[in-house]
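Field reference: sequence -> structure
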Amino acid sequence: MKTATSTALLLTIAYLGFISLGLPDTLIGVAWPSVRDGFGRQQADMAWIFFGTGASYFLSGLFAGRLLNKVGVGVLLAGSSVLVAASGFGYAAAPLWGLFACCSLLHGLGSGAIDSGLNHYVAQHFSARHMNWLHACYSVGATLGPLIMTSMLAGLGSWRAGYVMVASILLLLTLLFALTRRLWDAPAEPAADADTVPTPAESPMGMREALKNMAVWLQIMLFFVYVGLEVTVGQWSFTLLTESRGVDEETAGLWVTLYWASLTTGRILFGFVVERMGIDHLLRLSMLGVVAGLALFAFNGPALLSAFALALTGLGLASIYPCLMTRTPQRLGKARAAHAIGFQVSSSMIGAALFPSVCGWLAQHTGLEVVAAVALGMGITLMFLHEVLLRSDARGVGG
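Structure field:
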């Protein structure tokens, strides 16, 4: 039986777990120029990392529900953390490009299961407030990742040391999951606290029936574009700044860190005000901020303007994922949302792999500045899709 103390402990570990989930995801963006030159690769070869991680992440998330039923949350989280840590050590030790790229498969398999397991647990046991802050914790990890890699490059001149550092942190998380594995699957106390969200019994809905709804498809497209945009800006801005705009590595690394830090800060702050502003209103303002930030970044004015543009873009992006996820059951109903949320996460992984990879191919053939132009186009598309979704709500299509 879970006590209040054990519940608080598990929530804390869930927060730490999402921090660790973000740590390795953003390393390649800062490490890539060094990795590329070290292995003698081209810009477009970064696509192998995105596709390897995205494909295995997709499969892991797809089958996470079955694994949860078979082994439980605790064992799944501990085993998945081992895979992510192993991928980090593998990246650091890989003597050949092929082996380095293969480590992305381990990374995706482990991260997908951690993502699904923790989201499942928090959604079942805690309020939407904690779900928003859970994703803020991911942003904390995503912020620390570039900072760690930049410090290793500046201090030791080694991208491998950055991967070793992060992999070591992930091993500590594995230990935490392993030691608490039985608590994750223990039944909750009969008296739920104010933060607990009970799950009412509902009639199930088939996947095909859910896909007949127009709003489901609009949200799938929104998540597809949103995550593709977030990853594209986060992973390519360092290379664009250093190799196209002449910014030194240490400064560029700090500016990329600022992008992720703005995303983190926004998620924390918006968690306090979203109920007063309203989710849809906040989303509209956020998307306007994203487009404005990306327009400034694509403008390529004074160097400091690029730093401000990245910060504004991160702040604008901050509320979009958690707010759209929170809005899903409100818009679609809980039965349909059970499938829609899975579709959204899967489409996110496809976007995270596809858009940065396409940008790498375009950058190789036309120049790095095309990345900023593509990102701006994605931001405008995101805002357009959201407006279409709001109009479908007004017509009652999404109910």
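Note: The chain has a mean pLDDT of 84.
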